[in-house]
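User: Sequence for HTH lysR-type domain-containing protein below. Tokens please.
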Amino acid sequence: MIPFTLLQLEAFVAVCRHGTMTRAAQALRKDRTTLSELINCLEIDLGYALFDRQTRPLSRTPSGDRLYRQAVLFLQEAQAFGGIASQLAAGEGQQLTLSYDVFIPHSMLVSLSAELAGQGVTVNLRCEPRLQGELALAEGRADIGIYQALNRPVGQSFSWQTLGAIEFAVYASPALFAETPVTMMALASHTQLLPWDFMPEYLAQRLQIADRTQSVNERELLIALLRAKQGWAMLPTHFFTQQRVGVERIETVMGRKGMLHPVVALWQPGKVGHTTLRYVLDAAERNFTA
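Assistant: Structure tokens for HTH lysR-type domain-containing protein:
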């Protein structure tokens, strides 16, 4: 048996956020006596105090501190549950918006979309740079994001999970370089084609070798430029699951083993129902590790 109610948790979180019983009661549109009773009953049921009543504004006890974030997450999950339950009651299928960057394998997205469709979930897909995707997640225009990992914290507003890794390798016309394995100096002396409008700093540190670059954000045109010996590119190996005439993976002094870059999923806690979220993450991870 769970020793608390949603109303008690809602009251607890409101007092934490507003600092006094009076302001919390106003925010929840309850009278102060009712809210105080909810907090008192919660503390009795739990067996310990959540607030230090000697301070103004009220401060949380160590136990209250430990429970606060969990209470917030619990309420967010309850809100997501309520939204899904309302959709089912109205006979509506669930809609889910997935944001992803240009390097995420299309095969994984197709499989994921098909699997979720079988569960009555329609996946809307939007390709965008990660920074734009994080803004879409924060503003509620996207539910889950799948991107290359950054070398920085994601912040408290997002939860995250590593899904796998994407392998990168050098691709070019076999006639572009005179000798193989190609040296770093040879790569630096030729134009590097970039499949985006600008080079994000976190990718530049890992993928940019040449000083002279040319951006091409349309994949087939980039392949055509490679074929025409206009430069070389560091690209995900899954771009070339089918053979491209006139374009090959080039052996370099780095060896045949490509560069691996981790991929992560981001989401805001409580914005997606737990069952759907778990299904999406498990399906995405399966596709990366297959």
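The longest strand covers residues 159-172.
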